[in-house]
């Protein structure tokens, strides 16, 4: 049950942040492909969108979602080595 609840949360974060993604600058949207992931750090969910190419992730958007479901865009860097 715990895994199912976590997967449900992950899916909700992905949907909420993808809605926010589509409201961003068109020039930035053109840099995107279908490379994205979500992760939870402490009580905050993070969703990053970009392009993975040549063993490097070009971070285009980074969103944080708080406990109240509030989505905010941030310029905070993400250690993308957690993909390995």
Query: Kindly, what is the distance between the CA atoms of the first and last residues, rounded to a whole number of angstroms?
Result: 27 Å
Rg is 13 Å
Overall shape: it is: globular
The count of domains is 1
- Approximately what portion of the residues adopt beta-strand conformation? 35-45%
User: Largest beta sheet, briefly?
Assistant: 4 strands, antiparallel
Number of β-strand runs: 4
- The overall average pLDDT, rounded, is 83
Order of helices and strands: HHEEEE
Number of helices: 2
What structural class do you assign from the helix and strand content?
Answer: alpha+beta
Low-confidence stretches: none
Helix content: 25-40%
Strand order of the largest sheet: 1-2-3-4
Descriptive account of the structure:
- The protein is of the alpha+beta class and 84 residues long.
- The chain has one domain (2-83).
- It has 2 helices and 4 strands; from the N terminus they run ααββββ.
- A 4-stranded antiparallel β-sheet has the order 1-2-3-4, with helices on one face.
- The protein starts with a helix and ends in an 11-residue tail after the last strand.
Comma- or semicolon-separated keywords:
36% strand, alpha+beta, 84 residues, globular
